[in-house]
Amino acid sequence: MRTAQPGLLQTVLAPIVFGVAVILLWQGLVTGLAIKAFILPAPFAIGAEFAGNLNNVAGGMTVTGRNSLIGLVIGAVLGIALAIVAALARLLDEMAAPIVAALSVVPIVALAPVLYTMFGAGAETARQLVAALAVFVPVYFNTLKGLRQVRPVHRDLMRAYAVTSWQATRAVTLPTALPFVFTGLRIASSLAVISALIAEYFGGPVGGLGKSITSAASSSNYGLAWAYVLGSIILGLAFYCAALIVEKLVTRRSGG
Amino acid sequence: MTDTLNVPGGDVPGGDVPGGDVPAVDVPAVNVHGVSRIFAAGKGPGVTALDDVSLDVAPGEFVSLIGPSGCGKSTLLRLIADLDVPTSGSIEVFGKPARQARIDQDYGIAFQQAGLLPWRTVAGNIELPLELHGVGKAARRGRAAELIALVGLSDFAAHYPDQLSGGMQQRVAIARALAESPSLLLMDEPFGALDEMTRERMQNELVRICAETQAAVVFVTHSIPEAVFLSNRVVVLEPRPGRIRSIVGVGLGDMSGRGEDLREDEGFFRSLSEVRDLLHGDPDSSGTGLPTGVVPKTGARGVETR
């Protein structure tokens, strides 16, 4: 199915060249126009801070990454399970629809302060729950949509085979829904990181990337703040790429 | 009972008698009696897709249903398959109610769309009905290999559907329909989406497969040559409401004797024009109550007369 390879040059080299050019331009502008560090630090300075505080940044990534991952797993499991239940029971779907719709418009990180008072400011639970809630919505909606994609010809076939509804679900409904589930998970993966990180701004224990960014910025250490931002970007990308790879591996053959 | 299947039949899962359920000779494979199907249409009186249709199909017989769009030929097939329920009348398959026949897996079915599962290989797709009905792994493998050979796809067993042409996918679908050695095959325009060349080749293959399996076939089509070439009898339906206009016996001999040269046969052409005349509706002889002025052209809409 592959069309003629666009060539390594185009796929890998072009974005690298572009990225390097942007960084050089940025560096040139900051030094050339003598921009103050609190407005925009130079990329080389950020790089130096990043390399100098590698352990701290990595520690922050571990804390925030762990919260994101736990949130992602909880939210995904709940989202998929409830979508299956909703797909099987029409009534339940209709009952749940307004609640889920309401949930999807709530700025979920805004719940963080409430959750901190519920679970205590010393625990990571609130952050994990925020991530889980953020993950739940896209996973639920995409899974539910996927479960409704069974083609009429496959439905006829299952009826002709006189199989139980559980057999039909396993043979046709779930495999059909799989690509949709993974689309939901891919969207959710970066949402999990963003939500877990932003939730740190509202309180809770120190150590995560979000807390580190605010404390570095408030102590005028702008280079370091940006180094943590860089760590956040790397963490988000890692989650997204991991989800993408799993998606590609699992859904190689579906969706036809 | 002698096992007439040349294709080595594995255990028939879900069925009561291995090797097919052709009971006493006088029980028809399909018995449709006074069947009507009316589809509810909002507040209106509903659409009568079939009106008082009766039809018998003998064991081992090949019967085509042909007619213009909207004549209810696909509806009739779906009723026999118990994918839909008649508004009135009764349908029996091998002497059992259609529902029981479906539960007992007395028929195999193929649709216009191949309807393969894209995440399963060719072999996996053919094994699907066997797997769902609890046939063991080894037996499944063996049966799938036989069927893949029967439809001439041995080199493609490990391929996925999206790697196959439309004709090959349809052959997989037919192999899947044959997986449990059914004594009745239901086919709803299985070659409808194929080009003419592939279509004729598939027809030749179907004739060969039918001769080998001795299964009765109910075949929906809108192609006159296809119906005549394949069938023992061609059932011509008329639309709105769907009724049987006439049944044409095609005396072209045994399935095993049918080959490419049959398409040049004089009897072939005679049956062809007979079916064509019926489809175009001769108002004097048919007396169907169709408005006379409209009959000649519009009566055969959707039918390929080439």
TrEMBL record, chain A:
<keyword id="KW-0472">Membrane</keyword>
<feature type="domain" description="ABC transmembrane type-1">
    <location>
        <begin position="61"/>
        <end position="243"/>
    </location>
</feature>
<protein>
    <submittedName>
        <fullName>ABC transporter permease subunit</fullName>
    </submittedName>
</protein>
<dbReference type="Pfam" id="PF00528">
    <property type="entry name" value="BPD_transp_1"/>
</dbReference>
<dbReference type="GO" id="GO:0005886">
    <property type="term" value="C:plasma membrane"/>
</dbReference>
<keyword id="KW-1133">Transmembrane helix</keyword>
<keyword id="KW-0812">Transmembrane</keyword>
<feature type="transmembrane region" description="Helical">
    <location>
        <begin position="223"/>
        <end position="246"/>
    </location>
</feature>
<dbReference type="InterPro" id="IPR000515">
    <property type="entry name" value="MetI-like"/>
</dbReference>
<dbReference type="GO" id="GO:0055085">
    <property type="term" value="P:transmembrane transport"/>
</dbReference>
<comment type="similarity">
    <text>Belongs to the binding-protein-dependent transport system permease family.</text>
</comment>
<keyword id="KW-1003">Cell membrane</keyword>
<keyword id="KW-0813">Transport</keyword>
<feature type="transmembrane region" description="Helical">
    <location>
        <begin position="125"/>
        <end position="141"/>
    </location>
</feature>
<feature type="transmembrane region" description="Helical">
    <location>
        <begin position="12"/>
        <end position="35"/>
    </location>
</feature>
<dbReference type="InterPro" id="IPR035906">
    <property type="entry name" value="MetI-like_sf"/>
</dbReference>
<feature type="transmembrane region" description="Helical">
    <location>
        <begin position="180"/>
        <end position="203"/>
    </location>
</feature>
<feature type="transmembrane region" description="Helical">
    <location>
        <begin position="99"/>
        <end position="119"/>
    </location>
</feature>
<feature type="transmembrane region" description="Helical">
    <location>
        <begin position="69"/>
        <end position="92"/>
    </location>
</feature>
UniProtKB/TrEMBL annotation, chain B:
<dbReference type="InterPro" id="IPR003593">
    <property type="entry name" value="AAA+_ATPase"/>
</dbReference>
<dbReference type="GO" id="GO:0016887">
    <property type="term" value="F:ATP hydrolysis activity"/>
</dbReference>
<feature type="region of interest" description="Disordered">
    <location>
        <begin position="1"/>
        <end position="20"/>
    </location>
</feature>
<feature type="domain" description="ABC transporter">
    <location>
        <begin position="30"/>
        <end position="275"/>
    </location>
</feature>
<keyword id="KW-0067">ATP-binding</keyword>
<dbReference type="InterPro" id="IPR050166">
    <property type="entry name" value="ABC_transporter_ATP-bind"/>
</dbReference>
<keyword id="KW-0813">Transport</keyword>
<dbReference type="Pfam" id="PF00005">
    <property type="entry name" value="ABC_tran"/>
</dbReference>
<feature type="region of interest" description="Disordered">
    <location>
        <begin position="280"/>
        <end position="306"/>
    </location>
</feature>
<dbReference type="InterPro" id="IPR027417">
    <property type="entry name" value="P-loop_NTPase"/>
</dbReference>
<keyword id="KW-0547">Nucleotide-binding</keyword>
<dbReference type="InterPro" id="IPR003439">
    <property type="entry name" value="ABC_transporter-like_ATP-bd"/>
</dbReference>
<dbReference type="GO" id="GO:0005524">
    <property type="term" value="F:ATP binding"/>
</dbReference>
<dbReference type="InterPro" id="IPR017871">
    <property type="entry name" value="ABC_transporter-like_CS"/>
</dbReference>
<protein>
    <submittedName>
        <fullName>ABC transporter ATP-binding protein</fullName>
    </submittedName>
</protein>
